Amino acid sequence: MAVIEVKNLSKRYGDTVAVRDVSFTVESGEIFGILGPNGAGKTTTVECIAGLRAPDSGTITVLGREPRDRALRTQVGVQLQESELQEKLTVRESLELYSAFYPDPADWRRLAGDLGLDEKLNTHFGKLSGGQKQRLSIALALIGNPRIAILDELTTGLDPQARRDTWELIAGVRDRGVTLLLVTHFMEEAERLCDRIAVIDHGEVVALNTPAGLVEQTATEDQTIRFRPSAPIADELLTGLPEVSRVSRQGDRIEVTGTGNLLHAVTSVLAVNGIVAVELRLEQATLDDAFVRLTGRPEEEHSS
Ligand SMILES: Nc1ncnc2c1ncn2[C@@H]1O[C@H](COP(=O)(O)OP(=O)(O)OP(=O)(O)O)[C@@H](O)[C@H]1O
């Protein structure tokens, strides 16, 4: 069952087209990722879904309702980039205050514990680090026990351990039946957490698939093998194999790129010629490769 439906969404700011004819649906219980470089239109898209911005054209329904419908307030939790609370509010006060807005709030002490905030309960918001503010905003998005949580740049600003802890928390939230819409530009995050990903570039959806499906869809040469041959070998032995598309050499190492059962084909021809592949490594296409092929740029250029 679709819980979010976006049809032909477009939004511009003056002369800038931020989102152009974007359509996708998010199914109940899934973690749906929106992945794309900076300025691709991810935040604008989720702000329209959260009812915080009005689209110029297109339609959005959330749990069958228009995004600004008041009935959604208790059903949709939103964590947006750079959300600011009052400087003087402590973590405890913020959690208690937000709990009071909802008919069936989550146990805020437990959420604070899960997000590593239990030692910061008496700290003022203004005195929290960027990562702690981030974790508090995730807690506040989840405090109403929402059916849908929209999380923008979930783990930006978190250290690697905090990022992994947050992934675990999010997977646990999904296991409780919450549908999650995540905005990210971290490839590893998208790959680990998301059931499906919409890749957005220049305001348009350029691909929509499972992480594995995106890799498969964009893989041109799906594997590369690197090794050092135990004895000299002529390139022709390898280039003659139907699985092999390219052979290159770096010093005493050989790199073979190709498709199909490349590893078996290469090791068999080596064996027939009495050669052993030393320090053999097999590399397969990753979501990073898919991202570069879809957007034409590496992820790092766009990470902030
Ligand atoms: N309030 C605004 N006024 C004018 N232009 C805006 C506004 N918000 C966003 N934009 C522009 O719209 C485009 C899409 O921005 P958006 O924030 O949706 O992208 P994003 O994919 O979320 O980027 P990031 O990863 O950097 O957060 C960008 O060109 C941005 O500069």
Descriptive notes:
This protein is an alpha/beta fold. The chain has 2 domains: 2-217, P-loop containing nucleotide triphosphate hydrolases (Rossmann fold); 220-284, Alpha-Beta Plaits, CATH 3.30.70. The chain is 31% helix and 30% strand.
CATH superfamily of the largest domain, please? P-loop containing nucleotide triphosphate hydrolases
Q: How many E-type strands?
A: 13
What is the CATH top level name of the largest domain?
Answer: Alpha Beta
Assembly state: single chain
- β content, as a range? 25-35%
What is the N-to-C succession of helices and strands? EEEHEEHHHEHEHEEHEHEEHEH
Helix coverage percent of residues?
A: 25-40%
Q: In terms of per-residue confidence, which ranges show pLDDT below 50 for 5 or more consecutive residues?
A: 300-304
- In which order are the strands of the major sheet placed? 5-6-7-3-8-9
Bound molecules: adenosine-5'-triphosphate
Counted up, domains total 2
Over all CA atoms, what is the radius of gyration?
A: 24 Å
GO molecular function, one term: ATP binding
Subcellular location: Cell membrane
Keywords: Antibiotic resistance, ATP-binding, Cell membrane, Membrane, Nucleotide-binding, Translocase, Transport
Protein name: Putative ABC transporter ATP-binding protein
